[in-house]
Amino acid sequence: MGRLLDSPHYGERWARHWLDVVRFGESHGFEYNQPRQNAWPYRNWVVDALNRDMPYDEFVRLQIAGDVIKKNAADGVIATGFLVAGPHNTTRPSSDPMRKTMLQDEVEGMIAAVGQTFLGLTVNCARCHDHKFDPVTQRDYYQMAAALAGVTPNEQKVTRAENVPFKEEADQLKLERRKLQNQERNILDPMRKAILAERVDHPEAQPEAPPATAAWDFTRGLEDEVGSLHIELKHGAKLDERGIRLDGKQAYAASRSIGIDLKEKTLEVWVQLDDINQRGGGAISVQTLNGNIFDAIVYGEREQKRWMAGSNGFARYSSFNGPEEKDAKGRPVHFAIVYRQDGTIIGYRDGQAYGRGYKSRGLQSYTAADAQVIFGLRHGTGPADGRMLKGSIVKARLYDRALDPAAIEASAGRSSTFVSATAILKRLGEEQRTRLAQLRTRRDVIEKRVTEIESSRTPMPVWAVRPGNPGRTHVLIRGSVRTPGEEVAAAGVTGLRTLSADFGLKFNASDADRRRKLAEWITHPDNPLFARVIVNRLWHHHFGSGIVRTPNDFGFSGGRPSHPGLLDWLAVEMREKRWSLKAMHRLIVQSATYRQSAAMNEQARKVDAGNRYLWHMAPRRLEAEALRDTMLMVSGKLVPDIGGKGYRDVREYKFKGSHFYDLIPQDKPEQFRRTLYRFSPRGAKRTMLDVFDCPDPSAITPNRAVTTTPLQSLALMNNPLVLFLADAFADRIRSEAGTELDAQLRRVHLLAYGRVPGQEEIDLTREFIASHNLEAYCRVVFNSNEFLYVR
Amino acid sequence: MSANPHHLSRRELLSFSAYGLTGAALTSLVGAEQAGFPTRPHFAPRARQVIHICLMGGLSHIDSFDYKPGLEAYHGKPLPSDEHPETFFNKIGLIRKNDFAFKQRGQSGLWVSDLFPHLAGVADELTVIRSMVAESANHTPATFQENTGFQLNGFPVMGSWVSYGLGSETDDLPAYVVLPDVRGYPAGGTINWSNGFLPSIHQGVAFESQGMPIPDLFPAREIPVATESASRNLLGRLNRRYQDQHGADDALAARMRSHELAARMQLTVPEVTDVAREPAAIRELYGMESKHTADFGRNCLLARRMLEKGVRFVQLISGGSFGSPRINWDGHEDMVKNHTREALRIDQPVAALIRDLKQRGMLDDTLILFTSEFGRTPFTQSAKDQVGKGRDHNMYGFTNWMAGAGLKGGMAYGTTDDIGWKAVENPVHWHDFHATVLDLLGLNHEELTFYHNGIKRRLTNVHGSVIQGITA
User: Fold this and answer.
1) A697 to chain B: nearest residue by CA?
2) Contacting A residues, span 496-555, partner chain B, CB-CB under 8 Å
3) According to the 3-state scheme, what is the secondary structure of A733-768?
4) What is the predicted ipTM?
5) pLDDT digits (tens, 9 = 90+) for A570-598
6) Residue A178 belongs to what domain range?
7) Fold that domain B41-215+283-457 belongs to in CATH
């Protein structure tokens, strides 16, 4: 047990339970449903805090007021992700009462989360009138609203303070890097100059440019200099000595249909930018005539100041991880993208590889009659916000094949002052080349370390509380923003007899004071609910049901405790164990109650079929996430990394102003992480996880329903991931147990069920595997009750 | 917790089904088992099944079902009131008369405009509620309220509540099916058919019009028939063996049964979605053979086929998300253009659905709902001294209609003021509308509850009263 609690996966397992309670979702919800790209640090913070066994009271205080309590510490800010984990409506109507009501709705969501999570009190029920059943008045509700009134959900930049000491090291390294660069230049520059001089003197020495399918020099005109794919200016695009001038608002240029089928291809452009910070404009694109399908050289769309291969819905996008653009404002730069048959996409800038190429999901082909070339517009049939380029297109070329690096270099070199490194290297002597290689090796090492240090020092955006001006809070009569009543100061719930609700704050107290006081009040040792609620949650997850069956509601409408004395005792233990959750786990798991078997007892079953009095350990179905994780693990595919940004099983795209999340295949190792690390937007397309009762993160879910449905059977039999993992499982078995059937079966059973198979089972299965295959058997195992249920 | 007299123990539920008594289908029993809920009506229902046609964006009631002769006189004048209306864009232009001519239709003489010529032909079947009111003039909160009673994310929608309340009548299909607009999902995505805090079995299952209708219906890669059937066989044997060793457990038994139901679903889903099987005359009736109506026509026909198979609640969505160019009813820019285009897509198919259900004798126990999250303003969205072309959101008064379910057809309930701005007589809030829907299905909206975090939640929150005088 010590091993389990010390394992870093303990934090992952229990973080999932916590994230259910705090409605942790990674998109805003409502109409726009924008993704929250930077909510994940909160998830990792929870994992880390649990692993370190942070005392529970501190764990809670930081989630309410971490930014106040741990001033200037990244973790303090990240922890407040709790308060803003819920939906957030960014559609702002122009009517003032409507906006105020929306704000109140959000406050209610926050009060619901705070009240239920830490106190098991549904304070949110008192927004319009005093609580119907529990001693929570409407005034209490607005006191708590006042305590949270300064909370604004937003992205915040934080810097991890622990990395500050490395600054000195980074400075040193940068100094050395500069020296190395100078030494390299001393070798390279003379040769570069020599080559350029030769070009002027001997045009014939220039490398031969590869033949293009179409080529335009817009400093001369709009005509295709190879064929007849001439270009037409649209919406005020102009032609002058710099090429096609694009205003970044309306202007673009387009060809008619290209007249040849395009599969493999190369796009090439010489482009100068008017604004280096612009976002999302296309330099050159090939697209279907309706503008829906496209491949394009795009500037700054996903990453500021970087070039990328744009495509419809980012279908073929990955970052090149190329360097920031620094020159394109001062001079035209050459950029080319090569699209190969196998889906590989490679970028080149000034004739040299730009970052790293990658393998996309597949090559997009275009037909002769339904494709065109456009400039200055990412894609589409008319000007559109966010897709327009501001600058000049000087020249461009289109190829109906994938150029190799040498051809690209030749094409770029011919017309620019750029001289490729290869060309220079060829002319250098042996000694110089060796020296250069040494310098480069050292510089690479430095580069890597500097990037490492800087990226951890660069302020990191996180979705968290942005402290704001709380303003004045009034009781709203019947909950309506149109009928404000008396003013209230931040305070707690008055009904708790052992603890005063008064924070001693004035009406105009600062946000920091309000939240700090709230955090102190909630975690106060005299708060009778605080400890009971958390020990009940632990009990709930260990036994499948809490001592109070409604973990978020200890009030009148909630369940009565089945063992009130036990609950009280555990609460006291919790305080005495100085709020150590791990100590409480140990206590519960070592109890005689927990160590019972799942064996049936017909007599007990007659009296208490629901096992309320815990006479045995009832079989429990694996939760959706645990099911996926277990399949990954037994098939040997699980990537057990801890922390980080996580993985995605959806493709995110924007359509008509709203964001949508469609499922993508799970077939890459980076996706084979624990399901905890899944990017979890609201309202995404149905996944196997939903089918197995994983809730949409819009709802606060302290206890998940456990259903049994035919859709679950369909998913578990047919889902591509399940089949993929069944195959992987079979591969693993063959490699670990060899070809002998009995050995294979023993290995399957050991991994999937944790036991060896009986002879009868071996007989039952032998024939099946012989006439079908091991893959099919592994699929059956994933579907079997013994795999799905824990006893 | 389980004070409900209808609550059966898990054991009872299973023996109930094992003997083949089909009070409700097993699909829901399997879910009911752990959720503990009624799956039967509280009193004799008027309808067993629901088709919900959900118009996204805001249908202009004054251009469709709410005839306001007075508008003509006010055309080009400001609002006859000092009150500043709450709209979305807050640009209050001058009043514009209706753009589509109204006529009295059918035996009943119900007013329907030329926007819906086909629906006008079945006017005698419609029970038009002209006094709807909503609490938000912002699309998504209003749509949430239309479907869940609340303006926030995370509450169960009507279809989920009905599935929860009545269970399913079929083992072979989900109880609650959604047919999204082929042009795209509505804003917010699947949250529009979310089960919220209800068990996941009540989530709407969206059927796609392309490819596999529902995810994971068949293996993601080809598996030989012999292997497939041998796999099922082996799975059954392993599970039975496991049960013999460890004693009977209800959850495990239900799981074994669910595999059989899954196999039946694999037969039924392709069959029910194969609308090509329908006779040519029917396909033509639904407009499947012409460009503008083919998409929605297919979905309407599909809805009928699903009802025949016992699906409890089919939701047809007309309209996608909100950006430009519009693909829904949100006529801010040009009402005539927008509504003409959208109505053309659905008018004939919806009318065909009503006729078809009627001729098959299915209309009586089917409730058809035709709703929009709010209406549109009688004044245009323009400068205050201009008559513009577009109308903004109107939450103060708008129109829904119902049909079937033993309702009085050809009638209108409630009225708005002279210009169709505000409901003035018998206003119907969404809570009342929902209470009425549940009532027609034999469910008392105050008793259909689900405990969640301190509250016995209802579709109608703590409000709602059943509309009186609209049933025959």
Assistant:
1) B154
2) 549-550, 552-553, 555
3) HHHHHCCCHHHHHHHHHHHHHCCCCCHHHHHHHHHH
4) 0.83
5) 999 999 999 999 999 999 988 888 877 77
6) 162-202+432-457
7) Alkaline Phosphatase, subunit A (3.40.720)
